[in-house]
Amino acid sequence: MGPEPLPGRVVALQANYCLVSLDGPAEPGSDGSGPGGYGRLLCTRRTRLDKSGLQVCVGDRVLVAAVDWRARRGAVVGLEPRHSLLQRPAVANVNRVVVMAALAEPALDPLQLTRFLITAETTGQPVQVVLSKADLLPAAQVLAWCRRLEGWGYATAAVSTRSGKGLEALRRQLAAPGIAALCGPSGVGKSSLLNALAPALELRVAAVSGRLRRGRHTTRHVELFPMAPGALVADSPGFNTPALPADPQTLAAAFPELLARLRVSPCRFADCRHQGDPGCGVGVGWDRQGIYGRCLEEVEAAAAARCRGRQGDRGLRQRGDRLEPLLDPQLRRSSRSTRRQGLEQGLPALDGDLSSPDPEDSDPDLR
Ligand code: GDP
Ligand code: ZN
Questions:
Q1: What kind of fold does domain 1-82+335-367 have according to CATH?
Q2: What superfamily does domain 86-235 belong to in CATH?
Q3: Residue with the nearest Cα to atom 22 of ligand 1?
Q4: Ligand 1 binding pocket includes 156 (Cβ within 6 Å)
Q5: Which residue out of 136, 192, 217, 225 has the highest number of ligand 1 atoms within 8 Å of its CB and is therefore the one to mutate?
Q6: Which is deepest, 143, 152, 233, 246, by most CB within 10 Å?
Q7: pTM above 0.85, yes or no
Q8: Strand, helix or coil for residue 132
């Protein structure tokens, strides 16, 4: 029997590796006060660690075994249940989501901001808005935008890395314990903001060892950065059009002002589309009504397309250039669960992964 697995948190992912920040001292007997602090280990991982097929995400609480202290390597052998998940960027255990939009350059696009807010809402965690580049608009317009977004149901703060406006208050908020995910379209100033709030970040990233060494401006993956003891910020690469949820009911639940209207006057029909039809408690004339309508159309069109797709290839799948019957998923899964049992028992099942990609990743039949 080897030593007990060590608890830690995944702070970055790349290919089949993850960087795990250990909860405890880097090495047995050390107090963690050395240059490495509480150690970070480059660990092998399986994309699907537990029985339900969950993938390891940044933010996940994991157990690390088979530690080679000199090479600073280990293997993830266990995954704790998550209390929340932000889908894109994928961040587990977020405690709040900060959606960032620029007041100008690029001009604030309420539809795009809404798409980010919808993604944020699906975590079930508190969501707040930060409006950047406040130096580019007259104060009255900045205030008007803040009031408008508060009308949508969001605590909203305007900031500027140029003038320093709002930075101190935001720094205090992000220093609260837990994980804050910062998201928003590229170019709104997320990197500038993080550098302004925590100038040491760049340094810390440069200190990352091994294969994960790279500047934060070249990163294509979400990473967690320490803002204060126990406080982490997830910074994500820019992507500009978050997907909408598949279910229209989930969509409605992502509009706080719609929910507020529903609480006052419920709709007559449970499957109401909240388009202000007779019997709809939400009614008309609310700010994001048009935006909600457009999102709803998109969600319904996607659902209809999925339905058509299913009717087309029922029971068959494409393999190369021919169709063949689908296997029973239970049959396909058995060999994987056998292997995974070894993983959960902490057996050295990951040895081969240090140099070769996990075959489960490249085998489309196992997805
Ligand atoms: P990211 O893609 O969200 O990380 O955005 P960046 O931090 O790379 O910033 C995009 C551009 O916006 C850069 O040219 C920054 O100099 C500029 N920028 C960032 N913050 C501010 C701000 O507060 N005011 C103004 N005027 N420009 C800013
Ligand atoms: Zn309704």
A1: OB fold (Dihydrolipoamide Acetyltransferase, E2P) (2.40.50)
A2: P-loop containing nucleotide triphosphate hydrolases (3.40.50.300)
A3: 133
A4: no
A5: 192
A6: 233
A7: no
A8: strand
